[in-house]
Amino acid sequence: MTITVSQEDADARQKTRDILSRFGRTRDNLIPILQEVQGKLGYLPREAMLEVAGFLRIPEIDVYGVVTFYNQFRLNPPGKHSIRVCLGTACHMKGGYITLDAWKRRLGISPGETTTDREFDLDSVACVGCCTMAPVTVVDGKPEARTEPTRVDGLLLSFEHEKQKVTEEKDTIG
Ligand code: FES
After folding, report:
1. How far is the CA of 162 from the centre of ligand 1 (A)?
2. 131: which of 7, 62, 90, 161 fits an S-S bond (Cβ 3.0–4.6 Å)?
C-alpha cells in the first residue's frame, strides 16, 4: 500500500521538526512547543501534533487533549479573512448571538472552523472594548459596528466584490 503525504503535511512536519530541535524532550515543554508551532504554522495540524507526541514520547491523545483544552490553540488553518463575533455583555444584549448565527449560516461553518476554500475563519470573542458599537464583529482585526444580519450580508458582498476585482485584474494582466 502506498501512503501519499501532501506537500502541506510534509511542510508542517518539517517546520515542526525544526522547532523541536530547539527544545529538550521534557513534557514541561509541551505548551511552549505548541505555541511556537502554532506561531509558525498558524494552527496545529495533526501532522504537527504527531511530531510533537513522538518527540516528547507521549501519546498523541495527550497532545490533542492539551490543544483542545486551551482555546489559544487552533485545530483549523487560519482563513484569509478572520471573523470574530463579540459575545461580551453589551453585544450579547444587542443580539450578538443572532450575529454569530448569521455568520455561521452564511459561511456554513461553526466557531473554531475555517471554510473549505480557506477564505474565512470564524470565532467568538469576549468584549473588544467598543460596546457603543454593539453588536460588534471584528473583521480582519477591524471592529465593525452594528453587525446585524443585513450588515453581515453587506460585509460578505464587499469581500465578494473585492475578490471579483482581483480576478478581473489578474485576467487583464494575464
Ligand atoms: S461587549 Fe462587544 S464590544 Fe464590548
Report:
1. 28
2. 90
Work out the mean pLDDT of the chain and round it to a whole number.
93
Q: Tell me, what's the pLDDT at 1?
A: 44
Give the atom of ligand 1 at the shortest distance from the alpha carbon of 92: 1
Please state the φ and ψ torsions of residue 137, each to the nearest 5 degrees: -125, 130
Query: Is 7-69 assigned to CATH 1.10.10?
Result: yes
**What is the Cβ-side half-sphere exposure of residue 140, based on CA atoms within 13 angstroms?**
8
CATH topology classification for 81-173: Glutaredoxin (3.40.30)
C-beta of 86 in contact with ligand 1 (< 6 A): yes
Alpha carbon distance 49, 60 (integer Å): 7
pTM across the whole model: 0.80
C-alpha distances in Å from residue 153, one per residue of 2, 19, 105, 139, 171: 45, 41, 11, 13, 27
For the beta sheet containing 120-125, the strands, ordered from the edge strand earlier in sequence to the opposite edge, are 120-125, 81-86, 137-139, 142-144
**Amino acid letter, residue 120:** F
- Give the start-to-end residue ranges of the domains of the chain: 7-69, 81-173
Return the percentage of the chain with pLDDT > 90, whole number.
86
| pLDDT in the model for residue 65 | 97
